[in-house]
Design goal:
Layout: H1 20-45, H2 50-92, H3 106-112, E1 115-116, E2 129-130, H4 142-148, H5 161-169, H6 216-220, E3 223-225, E4 228-229, H7 254-260, E5 267-271, H8 277-283, E6 288-293, H9 300-306, E7 310-313, E8 327-332, H10 342-355, E9 356-369, H11 372-385, E10 388-398, E11 404-413
Helix pairs in contact: 10-11
Length: 418
Amino acid sequence: MGSVSLKIGDGTARFNRATLCSSAVNLLMLFSIITTNLFALYAFTSSPEPEHHSFHLSHQKNISLISEQVSLILREIDASQKKLTQMEKDLLGYESIDLSDPSIPTELKNFLQHHQLPLGKDSRTGITEMVASVGHSCGKSLDLMAQFMKYKVNGPCPEDWSLGQRLILQGCEPLPRRRCFAKSIPKVGLLPYPNSLWKNFSDSIFSWSGIGCKNLACLNSKKLNRDCAGCFDLVNGYEKGKFVKGRGKNDFLIEDVLALGSGGTRIGFDIGGGSGTFAARMAEKNVTVVTATLNVDAPFSEFIAARGLFPIYLSINHRFPFYDNGFDLVHAANGLDISGRQEKLEFLMFDIDRILRAGGLFWLDNFLCTSDEKKKVLTRLIEQFGYKKLKWVVGERINGGGNSEVYLSAVLQKPVRV
C-alpha cells in the first residue's frame, strides 16, 4: 500500500502520500461499511418480508389449532367423567327420587320433602331444614316403594310387613315412615320376666301374614336356616341345651366365654340370633343382649320380644345404629356369612370392630367354612384386625346328608389401638 515514514527531528511527524491503489481500497472498504450499516438499519426498521410473515402466521395458526384440540380433548374428558359419575349414581341409586313423577304417592312426597325448622337456623348445627332419611336404593325399587306408601292416613296400615322386608333386603333401608296404625295383636298368655325366657307361646300372639307356616309346630318341623332347626320349641327342643351343653368341641359354653372377659361383660350384640336363645342365656348371667334379626319365613322378632328380650329389626347390610366402642361382646354365627366379594365381609367386620370396645370379645360361633379358601379369607381378615385369639377351634361335623363340613369357632379379644 506504500510506505509510511515517521521522522522526528523538528518535533513534527510527516506521512508520505498514499498511492492511488491504496486510496481506492480504502474507499471500497468505507463503502462496504456504509452499505452494511444501511442494510442493518433497513432490516430493523422495515416490516417483515412476505415469506417471514407467512411463516409467522402459519406458526400462530398451528399453535391455535393445537390449543383448540387440547381444549376439545379436555371437554371430552370432563363430559366423560360427568357421564360416568351419573351412571354410577344411577346404578347405586344415590340420586334423589324425582318427586315430580306422577306415579309417586302423595304420602311418599310428603315424607321426602324437606321441612324448614320452625325456629329457623339451628345455632349449634347450622342446619335450617330437616331432611328425611330413606335408603339410597329405594329409588331403584320405586314400584314396590309406591305400593308400600299407598295407605289411608290415620287409618290402619296394610298387612304388608313382608313387602317392607322385601324392600329392606333389596337395600332400601331405612324405610320411610308412615302415618298409619300398625295392626294390634293381643299378646295373651305372656309371662313376666324372667319366666318368659323359656315359655312356649300361643300361636295367636304372632302375625302370620306373609309366612308359609301358620303356627309354631309347623316352624319347628322345618330347618329354617343352619342356626334354627326346631328353634321355636323352648321346652322340648335343642334350644334348652344351647350354650350350656356342648355337642362337640366347636360348641363353647357361656360360662367359659364370660370367664375370658374377666367379669367385664355387661351388654352384647347378637347378629342373626334366631329365636333369641343366646340373649336368653346371657340374660340369666345379667348380660343385656340386643338381637339383630329379620322375619325371614318366621316371626323371629315377635318371638324374641315375647321372651322379654330386645330384638332389633335390620339386615347386616345396614350400618349398625350404635355408637362406637359401646358393646362388651359381639356374637355371630352363620349370620356373618356374606356371599359375594370379600370387601362386603370387610365392611361388616369393620362395623363389628367399630361398636366393640377395646378389650371386648368377638365370639364367632360355629361358622361354616364351605371351602378352604373361604376359611383362609376369614382367617386373614381376622388377623388383619390384630385380635388376640383366646379360643380357636376348627372342627368337622357330619351334616344331614352324611357329608363332612368344617366349622370355625373362636373367641377373639379386640386390642387397644392408639
